[in-house]
């Protein structure tokens, strides 16, 4: 029986003439020229003759071909079609070889529509890009487990707690995306990784901010008329975030109102309305002073291209020896509105660009309090430019 199955020898295969040569048991060698050819297996499945290739010679040796042939004969003995089974295994292997890098990019693409500015600022993807993909990007997503995630995020788990948490959350989204694609992933991997990493020690700290009593003196010190100073002045006057201010385009200005596109506003995902910012007399004056620096319609153009960077105003304050950050002026304004005015909570929060109330409440309340906010911002302007130490508390 052994000789009936193993008719060929290594030497006979190597020197075989062109044509088909049987090794027995359905295994054949099709020689094309000396020392070259292909292996194939003939089997009968469900009354139908099937031929399946087993590889080329000499890459697949006689011994390897015999082992492969026996494996597939066993499949036939179980009543299965070996060609169909092999194709299915190949499809499964290909499906499960998706790398995390590819899954992450695909997950990002599907979520762009719900991200501010279609995610162009990169804040959704950057935690993955900076802290996860360099280590796990080339790993098949089906191979990733809690130990991989723990080892990847451990260096920043306590030192950069907020960033690490964002990276963990994004990775969880990627795993759920992979599962939706039909991949066999561990959806509990991030939860298990958190258990391995433990409670984070880092405590969130508020952005350092000047007390509102000290803001006028700082504002009045911005006298050089540089782009950085003009941007800071308008940031303080309007209490907006830095991103909409940096990307302020002149066509967004209409007289004494600046309209920020809805997609540029943070924290307003469920709102499709643009946000109107009332411009005080001082704010309008600052815009006029900045216009000579405008380029391509952007009021605060960068030195070489685009607009000023996110760090431009922070670095200016660093050079002044200040620990406070530009974003802190929003807190200064909000504290002033709470302590020195009678503005309602809804009006004061709307000044900050915050969405106030639930969906039902907002559905009935259509106003954005523009005229009330215009009075408040003019009062804030008066405080900033005043040289008097008397801070009057008044009604709006």
UniProtKB/TrEMBL annotation:
Q: Which keywords has UniProt assigned to this entry?
A: DNA integration, DNA recombination, DNA-binding
Recorded hits in Pfam families, A to Z, give: Arm-DNA-bind_3 (PF13356), Phage_int_M (PF22022), Phage_integrase (PF00589)
GO MF annotations, alphabetized: DNA binding
SUPFAM superfamilies xref list: DNA breaking-rejoining enzymes
Superkingdom, taxonomy of origin: Bacteria
Q: Show the Gene3D superfamilies listed in the entry.
A: 1.10.150.130, Integrase, DNA-binding domain (3.30.160.390), Intergrase catalytic core (1.10.443.10)
Q: Where is the Tyr recombinase domain?
A: 205-377
Biological processes annotated in GO: DNA integration; DNA recombination
Give the family from UniProt: Belongs to the 'phage' integrase family.
How is this protein named in the record?
Uncharacterized protein DUF4102
Where does this protein come from, organism-wise? Litoreibacter halocynthiae
